[in-house]
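Notebook, student rotation project (T.W.).
Task set for the rotation: take a protein with a known small-molecule partner, predict the structure of the complex, and write up what can be learned from the model alone. Partner molecule chosen: magnesium ion. Sequence and SMILES entered below by T.W., checked by me.
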Amino acid sequence: MFEPWIEKYRPKTLKEIVGHEEVTKRLESYAKSKNLPHLLFTGRAGIGKTCAALALARELYGEDMRQSFLELNASDERGIDVMRAKSQQVKANVTSIKDFARTMPFAGVSFKIVFLDEADALTQDAQQALRRTMEQYSNNTRFILSCNYSSRIIEPIQSRCAVFRFSMLRDEDILKIVGNVAKCEKLELDDSAEKALLYVSEGDARKAINCLQAVSALGGKITEEEVYKVASRAKPKEVDSMLRHALGGEFMKARKELQDLMTRYGMSGEDIISQIYQQVTRLDIPDSVKVALVDKVGEYDFRLTEGADETIQLEALLAQLMLAGKK
Ligand SMILES: Nc1ncnc2c1ncn2[C@@H]1O[C@H](COP(=O)(O)OP(=O)(O)OP(=O)(O)O)[C@@H](O)[C@H]1O
Ligand SMILES: [Mg+2]
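Predicted structure of the complex:
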């Protein structure tokens, strides 16, 4: 049976969560006192917010936490008519919250927990409804809201919650998480493969683990090559070489490398732009040139999201780099 490693290796306790020391310490003290306010977890994707909520619930309720812990996802519905789908979803959610909150809590804890993932996907109206629901059931229910952007959560909800900001995972944190999975799965992971995993995962532990699992399907030895291929990311040095050729005025060479990237890795225009962006800031060139380049990258990124032709736009961007390089 296929078991996603992100579930298999999800930390069971707050202690097992890598990084976020301040956050887990505060959560542990809630667990110990068996009391907590409403919580708002905010931070980037794949860094342990859901893990923290689940681990906290397990510490409070033990293994039968499922009776006292309701997990809802604010944006399960992704239709064309997103707005309507969402308001229906919220209605469904409110009904399940009602049913859930009606029964008594277990395990000597005086409240149940409703965990609402992707709370920032809720519309303003839905958030107003949520706020009323939070108030209505506050005597025996605590809400843990999780989001990527706390600025999208309305003020009255923020002020009812203790806010926990999950910072980015450090490279060493990601390596620790990935290293543990590799050890348990008996994978061979060398330095270059580790570096590649760090590069493609951009601080997202979920991405790193998923990538590792995909590569491991090909065998127990994890190589740099396969990591980039599975993530459909070019090797940083390939992007680097393309940029250098463009900056140095060798347009046709750069163009050929661009075409190679698109065909070999099956990268989309947006993937390539975001990698160019990552690489531009690391180039060893004067800041004034970097500024001009980042400005151009921003402009061409916008053009792509507006639906302009990828090949033409990317080649035009290379041409712009060449002009910037001449100055
Ligand atoms: N700090 C961490 N320590 C150990 N494992 C982690 C950590 N963060 C993430 N992981 C791994 O990555 C997976 C995804 O993490 P999680 O579901 O907690 O992300 P999230 O922060 O809730 O992301 P999203 O914003 O997308 O909901 C987990 O199942 C776990 O395997
Ligand atoms: Mg989550």
